[in-house]
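Q: What changes when zinc ion is included in the input?
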Amino acid sequence: MDVYCRGSSWLLQVMQVIMMKRAYILLFFSCVAGLFILAGARALADGLDSIIPLTWVYRSGPPVQTEQTGSVQYAGYSLSHLRLPILMYHHIRDYPDQSDALAVSLSVPVDRFAEQLDFIQEQGYQTVVFADVLDGTVPPKAVMLTFDDGYDDFYTSAYPELEKRGMMAVLYLIGDRLGTGGYLTTSQVKEMVSHGIEVGSHTMSHPDLRDLENERLRREIEDSKSFLQDGLGTTVWSFCYPSGRYNDTVTAEVQEAGYRFAVTTHNGAVDFTQPLELARYRVGSATDIEAWLK
Ligand SMILES: [Zn+2]
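A: The predicted holo structure follows.
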């Protein structure tokens, strides 16, 4: 009995030690598991940070354009997190006269353009247009390609490269120049619109909008929108200021005309909280686009 009791108490002590150690082991593993859970939550939050503004923001409700500020609000969310580099192109062509510095700077050679599109694809970027922004279908890695002035080389040189890769673009057309020498024709634009190319207005005659009286300003901004919409059978969501020149009167007219977005020639990252003053990255003959898409 005595032996048994002593034995029992010894056994009890061993059991207590084991239990304590087990508690320590359990505590240790709980801490490790806790650290893993925290790290996982952090990684998930980091991941969501890039997804939330691009999907939830737009699906939360229809955009509302406020009368007072002209800024676009999406039901309780701001657009400040939308990361969408907008590239600005003019000519896509192999320009022969190297002495014309301006023309050379506005022209991206076709093979260089094709390389840039390949790079965009390799980096996992998808091309979007403004209709995608309004629909809330902008993927986390998105880029917008815009082409100013509506030169005919867009149809012959840029569009085939875009088509090959299933890429989209926004084309800024000057109403009066449609179908004139060196510019796109209505039927070319209609064909491309049917393949997803989006059209924006670049006025009727490409003037400096800051100099214009009300009636002329309305023709360039408001009438160009209906002219393109009626002629091409598509909706024009965005406007492009000629030579990037505008003032408060001009932006007020752009808003009044019903445009949802307007692009400038300010160079840099886009800020969608100012939808009528969107910055772009200018792409010229010697531009390296890689830095903007990493
Ligand atoms: Zn222009």
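Observations recorded in class: The chain is about 45% helix and 15% strand.
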